[in-house]
Specification:
The protein is mostly beta strands. It is about 15% helix and about 45% strand. The strands form two sheets. Strands 1, 2, 3, 4, 6, 7, 9, 10 and 11 form a nine-stranded mixed β-sheet that branches. Strands 5-8 form a two-stranded antiparallel sheet. It is globular. It starts with 14 loop residues before the first strand and ends with a strand. About 30% of the residues are buried.
Length: about 160
């Protein structure tokens, strides 16, 4: 890939957000997003971090709001840095949990999608997901940096073994 079009040493996410992926018994809990950035795509539950909230508090709250469940044993495995032409820069904290309390329930924000990890619907997901979601499934820590023009990924860099 060509050199980055962004000076990442000066980069700061304008929006700080989270994603949660619950992986249990060979399946992963995804959502079909109903509104906002990525509406219609498959992703994990998550959203913006509110003022005064930690990323962990935010990802638990967002999962509760979107699916009416509470993830158990949540741990941060990655960060995603996005420079996007259609919205302000996003720094996303990515979490994994191995269990949850409650029954995943459709809300006005999201519909739950349990899928076997071998059958992840990549064509319905953001282009970058195929580069870092396998790392999350393998419990490998990561930092991904991405440049998007619309929904097209123009540049990426992945680093593994990052300490959070």
């Amino acid at each position: 890939m060509p050199p980055s079009p962004i000076d990442w040493s000066q980069w700061q996410g304008v929006i700080h957000a989270t994603l949660m992926f619950i992986v249990k018994d060979g399946r992963i809990l995804l959502i079909e997003k109903k509104r906002g950035l990525g509406a219609g795509k498959i992703n994990g539950p998550g959203g913006k971090i509110d003022p005064g909230e930690t990323p962990l508090e935010a990802v638990i709250r967002e999962t509760q709001e979107e699916l009416l469940i509470t993830p158990l044993g949540s741990r941060k495995l990655g960060e995603l840095w996005f420079s996007m032409s259609d919205c302000p820069d996003i720094l996303c904290h990515v979490y994994r949990a191995d269990d949850h309390q409650g029954e995943p329930t459709e809300t006005d924000e999201a519909a739950p999608v349990w899928t076997a990890v071998e059958e992840i619907p990549w064509p319905r997901m953001w282009e970058d997901d195929r580069h870092w979601l396998p790392l999350l499934l393998a419990e490998t820590t990561f930092l991904g940096r991405f440049v998007f023009e619309g929904e097209t990924m123009r540049w990426m860099d992945m680093r593994t073994g990052v300490e959070w």
